[in-house]
């Protein structure tokens, strides 16, 4: 099996090695390419190097779903909207179908041409303007990296507490001494693993995914056994919510679609740069099959386990617990605690490195290659992510997981709409690949000194609206739809403002 993580970072502009070593540059695959816009990592991938099948894509999604944050988000949705548990489950499934459709759209040009997200974005934002979405994706990833690092540290803290005891009660920024020790361990471990290379991370992901399912099934069995055989009958009522909740503006159909929107926003970062993965797939059919099995199907299994486990905790403990670490702690079985904590830790760390650490590392290296190599970029990412995660309990957690996810998703949403509308509606699914690597002023993707200022204005307007939908009280009823609205608005505005100009570029290709 081809390791799905050994190649993916190259799509995010990966230099020769994690240590920033310099290797001889091969003859360009795009003749006449501008050296400022071209290197081997972002060049069109030859067909012989596109070795992924459906399983590699499935594996990427499975590991992304199985993080501690992913579980906590799903469980939180079950208890936060006053909806029947099965209605929330259906909303999550619908989100999986939508994400699959979106990934099939944005992944197609990368499958066809073998080019990464940053190069695809050059067509709509300009050959130099592409630095903007690349860095925006990187900044978003740093926030995710910090959050996921914190969640991984809760598993380590649980393991330390189970073996050695809870330690001192004093806290700093909401975390105890054991919490800070665990957080530091995870931060250092992730940086060390990155330095070892992507093969090690790939090995992590390949065994962590199945291991998480084994632990979750075992945890569900224990919870189900303790809660009694009538648990399934209780699922529909445990999360039914109060009558008052159901009549609020956020209730009913609105709450259902808010669940859908929040789950879509959770995957927004990976969706936007999905071409970094799909460029390695042998065929579009393999990509679509991997998306089908890895999104709706895998998400259904994971969400069902989360539904049953969370419902069981509500029956057993009088409170629905949303963090797997808290649930395992309540089970009061030291062996299960250690195994489960270690498994969730590994799963969260693995996907955190691939989805949230690698993009900013190589975006920084690509931004200033003479001053920042991969190792320096890794240190910067780790430092900023450490601050973000360290502030999670004291500050960020206060805004709520759903608001955190919706906000980050709202920032990226217009980029997706712009890229998709540009490729399908304006360029009729055709790129001039040579021009994507050219800085010639008369090139179809040069615009104004390499920047498409119209597209930038569209992004600004659409992102202001989508972010306002999360935070402005008058637009609160739209908060769960921020990502979808932002993407749609970006697509419509870009099509309206660029259609005449882009048609000329298409005819010249």
Describe the protein.
Helix content is 70%, strand content 1%. It is mostly helical and 509 residues long. The chain has one domain: Hydantoin permease. A two-stranded antiparallel sheet has the order 1-2. Strand 1 (171-172) and strand 2 form a beta hairpin. Helix 5 (117-125) packs antiparallel against helix 6 (131-164), helix 6 (131-164) packs antiparallel against helix 16 (334-367) and helix 8 packs antiparallel against helix 16. The longest helix has 34 residues, at 131-164. It is globular and about 70 Å long. It is found in: Membrane. Keywords: Membrane, Transmembrane, Transmembrane helix. Belongs to the purine-cytosine permease (2.A.39) family. The chain crosses the membrane at residues 86-107, 142-164, 170-192, 204-225, 253-272, 293-318, 338-362, 374-395, 401-426, 455-474, 480-497. This is NCS1 family nucleobase:cation symporter-1.
